[in-house]
Amino acid sequence: MGRIGNIRGNRCGNGNFGGTVYHESGSVFVDVSRDTRGYYECLVEQIIKMFDTGQSPVTSQEMMEVVRFWRRQVKVSPPDGSSIIKRR
Asked: pTM of the full predicted structure?
């Protein structure tokens, strides 16, 4: 099973960004910038919780999937940051 995903953001102007999560039963847009606490604060909150409890909020398998997905994206992205459309 392959992985499909996207992350969108503005290079100039507002700092909004988000992404679409695709799964077997549908897709969901995640607007990260809508959380009033801010995405960095939420990240730090989970990091602190992980150090306090010794439990990661993400399984090793999930993390490796994210890392593999990200590495493939970096490998195929143009160095100038322009958009690409990958067709099979």
From this structure: 0.46
Contact 8, 17 (CB under 8 A): yes
Could you tell me how far CA 37 lies from the centroid of its own chain? 18
For residue 26, pLDDT over 90 is answered with: no
pLDDT mean over 38-46: 81
Q: DSSP letters along the chain, please? A: ----EEEEE-SSS---EEEEEEETTEEEEEEGGG-TT-HHHHHHHHHHHHHHHS--SS-HHHHHHHHHHHHHHHHHS-TT--------
Yes or no: say if 39 and 33 are a contact pair by the CB < 8 Å rule.
yes
Residue 52 is predicted with a pLDDT of 95
